[in-house]
Amino acid sequence: xxxxxxxxxxxxxxxxxxxxxxxxxxxxxxxxxxxxxxxxxxxxxxxxxxxxxxxxxxxxxxxxxxxxxxxxxxxxxxxxxxxxxxxxxxxxxxxxxxxxxxxxxxxxxxxxxxxxxxxxxxxxxxxxxxxxxxxxxxxxxxxxxxxxxxxxxxxxxxxxxxxxxxxxxxxxxxxxxxxxxxxxxxxxxxxxxxxxxxxxxxxxxxxxxxxxxxxxxxxxxx
Length: 222
What we know:
The structure is a single chain. The chain is mainly alpha-helical. 80% of the residues lie in helices and 0% in strands. The chain has one domain. The chain is built from nine helices and no strands. Helix 3 packs across helix 7 (141-152), helix 4 packs antiparallel against helix 9 (186-212) and helix 7 packs antiparallel against helix 8 (156-180).
């Protein structure tokens, strides 16, 4: 239960960071503004696209995790995933900027944003869903954190469920933002960014503890 709860919590906390990173996209959506209901439905489609991408990423993570679990490595997978997250969080606390990684992420983000430009020139329900789908691929530390936890489940359905719950955790804030505007300022966004490593450390200890409770031959347990 705590494993799945962590997915929603990570998504919800991550959504405050998303408010700063993806807020401009959510506010500029080419939705039908002729009525509040159409605006709301359009923004739901956008968020449905994001969550569907997270679910697909969960499927891929689940396939990897399930293969390793079948080979008898689920215990080691959960512990090693936790240790990897812990190491990444520690490094990010010690070194706030990793230049080569930032350069790669900037190029990848630029590629995705060019796709956005083409989609924003069209107005249709499918377009809104596709914008959300592409948005879900934007580099995000919280998404990577959720994926690491999803892989450790060793179960395809559990991995998909984890990433879907992560996406649902982001929904309240992202929906509020797109309807009400950028309520949270830059200072709060910086606070969330600084808190990210500590959130990652909490998830890391959860995965390590979960792995320690498994038997050596555990397989495919959510």
